[in-house]
Amino acid sequence: MAEQREITKIESQKKNPKRKSIFLDGEFSFGIDDETFYRFGLKEGDILTKERIDEIKDSEKKRKAKQFTFNFLSFRARTEKEIRDRLKKKGFSKKITDEVISDLKRLDLVNDYQFALSWIKDRLDHKPRGEKLLRIELYRFGIKKELIEKALEEIYPKKNEKEIAKGLIEKRKKRYENLEERLAKKRMADYLLRRGFSYEVVMEVLGSFFETEG
Q1: Nearest-CA neighbor of 50 among 8, 2, 95?
Q2: Do residue 144 and residue 74 come from a single domain?
Q3: Which of 28, 30, 63, 77 is the most core-located residue (most Cβ within 10 A)?
């Protein structure tokens, strides 16, 4: 027969009236939020099995994890990896984390593909860079390779990479005007490579730029 314990007292906590302290067999056992309390319909005199107690505690942990995650999402969109890493750091179990992620995906509050699309669009609009650097940035967010490639295919072809690189150089050309040509080319190339443009694109842009300048 499963171990059973009786709820002998329920009282609101002094520091947080929205939380309840649950006493089993005359001793404090655990604290829960009102949401969890009313969800399980607890009352004094209830007999709880160990399994039921564990279910109540897990529900409270999941509620805390979801509340924390909603706060985390309030600043900006997050990837699945970001949320998993943060919940792990806060001490939540993999089981609780999996359940929270599943709920968020169902509500479309976590969508790595949409995150990738938004990230690429924002970068191209405000801080243009090449596909290579975009891949690195999105990979660091834990987004799967196939989702990164799909997002790049959807958005990046709409903006020619060579033209983006050329535009960046045009904005900075005054920095290079008084430099010897070899040094100017080196600094331009270094800048574009740091911004994630391929070597082939960089060479094309520099060739076109200096042909025009000449």
Answers
A1: 2
A2: no
A3: 63
Q: What is the arithmetic mean of pLDDT over 91-105?
A: 95
Residues 120/153, Cβ–Cβ less than 8 Å: no
Task: Specify whether 31 is located in the same domain as 81.
Answer: yes
Using CA atoms, how far apart are residues 67 and 105, in angstroms rounded to an integer? Answer: 15
Q: How far is residue 137's CA from residue 129's CA, in Å, rounded to a whole number? A: 11
Q: Indicate whether 127 and 68 sit together in one domain.
A: no
| Residue range 94-107: mean pLDDT, rounded | 95
Looking at the structure, tell me whether residues 152 and 165 fall in a common domain.
no
3-state secondary structure of 12: strand
For residue 158, the model assigns a pLDDT of 58
Read off the pLDDT band of 1 (50, 70, 90). Answer: very low
Q: How far apart are CA 35 and CA 48, in angstroms?
A: 19
Residues 74 and 46 in one domain: yes
Q: What share of the chain is helix, strand, coil (3-state, %, to 5)?
A: 65, 10, 25
Q: Tell me the pTM.
A: 0.79
Average pLDDT in the chain: 92
What is the spatial distance between Cα 162 and Cα 213, in angstroms, rounded to a whole number?
Answer: 17
Q: What is the pLDDT of residue 105?
A: 95
Structure tokens at 91: 């001490």
Q: Kindly report the backbone phi and psi dihedral angles of residue 31, in degrees, each rounded to the nearest multiple of 5, phi listed first.
A: -115, 145
DSSP state of 174: G
Using the 8-state DSSP alphabet, how is residue 163 labeled? H
